[in-house]
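Hi all, posting the design record for the shared folder.

TITLE: backbone redesign
STEP: 1 of 1
STRUCTURE INPUT:
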């Protein structure tokens, strides 16, 4: 594991992993363990896709009114069905959303720059983003393929075909900058123990 920088800037822990592997659960545990803040890229996307935002306007112009809710916000379900079945459409969406998300994250980091506590940056495509260069450590949360499929079917009520398309659209999580892999194939208690051990190792680095 690389060293965590000291000084006036926050120490940044990058958190990523495939869909339905429990990345958000790990993020919540990190807050319980003492992380100063968790900056969630998906939450930023939700805000960017509300009614009246520039991002929503770009999405409407690119994909049409059929992906817009009556209240003017983006219908994420309809948009997902469209882009996860078409790699070119997904690329067009990412070209709209990713720069806006990076701007939100940079702004949030600037707000906590006076602290030396650990800030978690939670993003699915962290390893493919310039945000990776900000991270002092990177955790990947994974689980078995069977567990991943079961969670998508049971908790997100996806068909098998829809779940497979989401999994296929995920980026690679194999990267030399990954410092810790968290396996969330077991129970919540197993996950907590593994996260606590990794956290202890992280804050013990000098």
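Okay, here is what came back for every position:
SEQUENCE:
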């Amino acid at each position: 594991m690389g060293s965590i920088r000291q000084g006036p800037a926050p120490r940044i822990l990058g958190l990523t992993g495939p869909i339905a592997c429990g990345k958000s659960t790990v993020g919540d545990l990190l807050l319980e363990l003492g992380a100063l803040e968790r900056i969630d890229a998906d939450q930023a996307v939700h805000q960017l896709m509300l009614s009246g935002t520039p991002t929503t306007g770009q999405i409407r112009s690119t994909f049409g009114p059929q992906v817009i809710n009556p209240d003017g916000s983006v219908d994420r379900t309809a948009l997902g069905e469209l882009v996860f079945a078409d790699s070119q459409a997904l690329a067009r969406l990412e070209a709209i959303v990713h720069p806006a998300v990076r701007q939100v994250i940079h702004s949030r980091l600037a707000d906590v720059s006076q602290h030396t506590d650990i800030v978690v940056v939670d993003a699915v495509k962290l390893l493919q983003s310039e945000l990776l260069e900000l991270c002092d450590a990177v955790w990947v949360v994974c689980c078995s393929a069977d567990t991943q499929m079961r969670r998508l079917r049971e908790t997100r009520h996806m068909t098998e075909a829809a779940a497979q398309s989401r999994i296929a659209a995920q980026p690679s999580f194999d990267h030399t900058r990954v410092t810790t892999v968290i396996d969330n194939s077991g129970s919540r208690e197993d996950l907590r123990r593994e996260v606590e051990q990794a956290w202890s190792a992280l804050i013990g680095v000098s």
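COMMENT: The helical segments are 23-33, 41-48, 54-63, 76-83, 87-111, 145-155, 160-168, 188-203.
Let me know if anyone wants the other runs.
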